[in-house]
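Pair request: fold both.
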Amino acid sequence: MFFDIMFGFCVVGFVFSLFMLLKNEITFRNHMKVLSAIERFAQTVDIDRNDKIISLLSHMEGYDKTLWRWWDWGYKNILPKEDYELIKPYIQEKRK
């Protein structure tokens, strides 16, 4: 009986670990997409708009907060909506 319970805990722990491994990879890629879009945005704006770039970077949601939001697998909520709309044209979906 004890070993059955321990085996169940091990299986649940293993499945949770796989889930978090996948979620971590996707969260990392989404944060890199947003950072790359901010970088492309920074290359196209004037030097006088550096305050907007700093604002975009400071409004970015933390990696841990994004990682532990289990139901959100996208990158649209990493920035506030108005900031996301600003960099949306600079996001590249897939690299070829």
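--- second member of the pair ---
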Amino acid sequence: MTARDLRIKKFNDIITKLESCKGFIIDSATRNLEICYRLVVINYNELKKTFQRLQLYATHELDKKRDQQIEIYRVTTNFLASCFALIDQTRAFIIRNEGSQEEAFDGQFQEKINNEFKNDPLTNFIKDLRKIITHEDILPTGVVWKFNEDGTSYGTAYIFTKRVKLKSLSAPGKHYVTSTKGNIDIKDMCRKYLDKLPFPWVMQKVGEYHKEEFIEMKRLQADAKKAHKEIN
């Protein structure tokens, strides 16, 4: 075995150690989770832009009105679907890397879920929408036109609460609908739900609880970089 062969073997051995160290495994998983979160944000921004372009159509412009309603439904369901994916993948991440939801971060993860999500009306209404969209019907959405004091007008996309089937909702979900004054402002609902998603909090806790593993990962990365230079 030549000297270069030995340097290559040294490099490969470090890479093997790096790829098997817990810090590297968790870091790779968090990068995938971050992609899911970024998709949620991208979909929310698209929803906002779509709602800024809402138009008021005359009664004879049914095709344009229908196309606009389809676009409202598309961006809303895209946003919600990406949220559902992020929640499911966050749960899988926790179970895979922290043992279980109950054990994660010394029980803080489950405590946060219980305190902020379990009986929260908005969170449960969103969960109910997931069931409705997947198994029952499209959302009863539409545009309500409003006027400012200066005479200018704007359209706001809503879920029409009178057309939501209460029997399809959980008790907290029903509370959210019945406690809403009038129809549900979709953009406002989505903004509040985006703010509630636990991804940023989970990433903070991952950094705190795996600090030593990440230090080890960075050390091995530095060793690998040095060994790679020695090959060339």
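Observation on the second member. Residues 45-209 form one domain.
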